[in-house]
Amino acid sequence: MTLAPRAVLVHRTTEYEELLARHGTHGQAAFFLSTRGRDIDEVAERHRRARQALTDVAAAVPLRWRGARVERADLDRFLFGPEDVVVVVGQDGLVANAAKYLTGQPVVGIDAEPGRNPGVLVRHRAADAAKLLPHAAAGASGATELTMVEAVTDDGQRLRALNEIYVGAAGHQTARYRISSGAAPGGAEAQASSGVIVGTGAGATGWLGSLRRQSGAGLRAPDPHEGRLLWFVREAWASPTTGTSLVHGELTRDQRLWLTVESDRLVAFGDGMETDALGLGWGQSVRVGVAGTALRLVG
């Protein structure tokens, strides 16, 4: 028997909820904000709109479907299924947070605060959910396929991200490693830097865009659907044992950036989620390139 589709609603804790968790009561939170020149009414209204959007989307799920909800902090512990339709209710960044745990499931981005978010990835309103969910479950024809980046370690650990992957020290201090770029490892250079960023076209307006402008390398930013990545080394340090000749470049689908760790411990994490990182020990290697799975964004 074929399983009914499951609507997985992805959301995140609002600022108002975080304030209540920290200060205990509405009044205490209001006092705290007032000392910083802010009004809690604005924060509470944004909370109300976000929760109303989540309620409206949940009500639009067809009755015969199954349903689940997952908060951003629990994404790394949630098991997505192949029959899921993932509905992200929140900000553009929340789509990126969810994307790294998916394997081709259709994603519907619902803007919880229209006018406040750019709406690049959360392209729809809560009122659109009733129409979009059946379309997504039926195959999501016309969905946009956004390129993702993937890091794979020599012991089989795997990490995907929609915008970028960082490889370096956990606290962004000096990282030591050997680096090479191409279809296979070779001609590696020993480096000391504050980390390496490998990013996609979806991330070209964020961290990657800033590095691209600062580098002056003239590399063209990838389109979000293009199977091409850019990579940059941050603050490479030249010394008698470390070089600076391999500090930026691009990767096509058949190319990888190869790094071998020469520090006690480095990490690799995606899209700013430092709490869900791969740990890399001395002598361990990691290759980073275009992921075999893309984000399927509906609409």
Brief digest:
21% of the residues lie in helices and 32% in strands. It is α+β, with helices and mostly antiparallel strands.
Annotation keywords:
Tumour Suppressor Smad4, 6 helices, 299 residues, Rossmann fold, 6-stranded mixed beta sheet, 2 domains, alpha+beta, 6-stranded antiparallel beta sheet, globular
Q: Which series of helices and strands comes N to C? A: EHHHEEHEHEEEEEEEHEEEEEEE
Approximate helicity band: 10-25%
Strand order of the largest sheet: 2-1-3-4-18-5
Report the CATH superfamily of the largest domain.
Answer: Probable inorganic polyphosphate/atp-NAD kinase, domain 2
Q: How many structurally independent domains? A: 2
GO molecular function: NAD+ kinase activity
GO biological process, one term: NAD+ metabolic process
Protein name: NAD kinase
Organism: Streptomyces typhae
Folded structure, characterized:
Helix 1 packs across helix 2. The protein is α+β, with helices and mostly antiparallel strands. The model has no long low-confidence stretch (mean pLDDT 93). The strands form 3 sheets. The protein has a 6-stranded mixed sheet, with helices on both faces. A 6-stranded antiparallel sheet has the order 7-6-17-14-9-10. A 6-stranded antiparallel sheet has the order 13-12-11-8-15-16, with helices on one face. Helix content is 21%, strand content 32%. It has 2 domains: 136 residues, Rossmann fold; 146 residues, Probable inorganic polyphosphate/atp-NAD kinase, domain 2 (Tumour Suppressor Smad4, Sandwich). The protein is built from 6 helices and 18 strands.
